[in-house]
Amino acid sequence: MTIPPTVAGGTYYIGAIADYENIRAESNETNNAMRGNTIRIVLTDLITSSLSTAISGVVVTPGDNYSLRNTVRNQGMAAAGSFTVAFSLSKDAVYGGTDDIAFTRARTVSGLNAGADSSDETSLTVPTTTQGSYYVCARADSGNIVSETDEANNGRCTSSTITVVLPDLVMTKVSGPASTVTGASVDIVNMVKNQGIGSAGRFYVALYLSTDAAITTADTIVGTRHFWGLSSGVTDSATTRVTIPTTLSAGTYYIGAIADYNSTLAETNETNNALSGNTVIITIGADLVMTAVSGPSSGTKGASISISNTVKNQGTGGAASFIVGLYLSTDPNITTTDLRLGTRSVGSLAA
Fold first, then answer.
1. CA geometry: angle at 23 spanning 17 and 25, to 5°?
2. How is domain 46-164 classified at the CATH fold level?
3. Which residues pair with 122 in a beta bridge?
4. pLDDT tens across 242-277, in order?
5. Is the per-residue pLDDT at 56 higher than 80?
6. How many CB atoms lie within 10 A of CB 286?
7. C-alpha pair distances (Å), 298 with each of 135, 306, 341
């Protein structure tokens, strides 16, 4: 027989009842039960007996990794089965409060005998949404799987805090040519600075063309550059080659840039990442001309013929995809009102 794991600890009598389902009629139905000896049910009692981190009082940034030394003790009188130790950041040094921010990583203890300890150095990653001072906390049997004599003493927090700081990325310069054409490749000078206290992790700077000076992600993106990270106070400058879209309409545009344009980083200020630079006059760069077209000198109705044709882009910028129409005309002036025999598609055509 197995004592149910949900039984509360304490002293119990072992007993038995004959015909406990009352299946048989008896001359005396009141003498079926008997009490035996007593049994003491002992339980587990898990506590987080020690908790410390090598970075107490140190400034860290979201995404940083560090090791947390933690020990769980079974101070109860019964062995514990498998359970999980969970970790969190807390503003008030109390595990499980509404202010807690949970770590994604936990550790599993496969079992723990009465009076035994389980120690570990658990590698934790600072959550990306944190900022400020926090205590680091742990709780043994976070899922309340193990029945214990005391369910309220499983948590513990460090005696000192860690401070989580954020970066603050700003574009300090963006500039390009005063004029260009669609399809052309141009160089855009761009400079980004981390003016925050915390280091920035991986992010991208995106380069844009905008019809107004308010640069947003809804504008036309023309290129990006990648950063693996940027330390506090550091400025990084580069010249990035981009291609003006062949589908862009002619006009005057602002050259702009946005640091962390896809918002992968938490920052102290999320509203100062964009910058507009100089304006650029963009004209249509493509100029398509047919340089050759020829076919057979005679043909019959319903017959298939082959027409050789060559198209050239004599402009200064590339052309996006287009279609060449092939016609029969009663005069040498070929127009779209003539009889179109067929077409061919051109994916794109460089200058």
1. 95
2. Immunoglobulin-like (2.60.40)
3. 68
4. 999 999 999 999 999 999 999 999 899 999 999 999
5. no
6. 21
7. 91, 12, 15
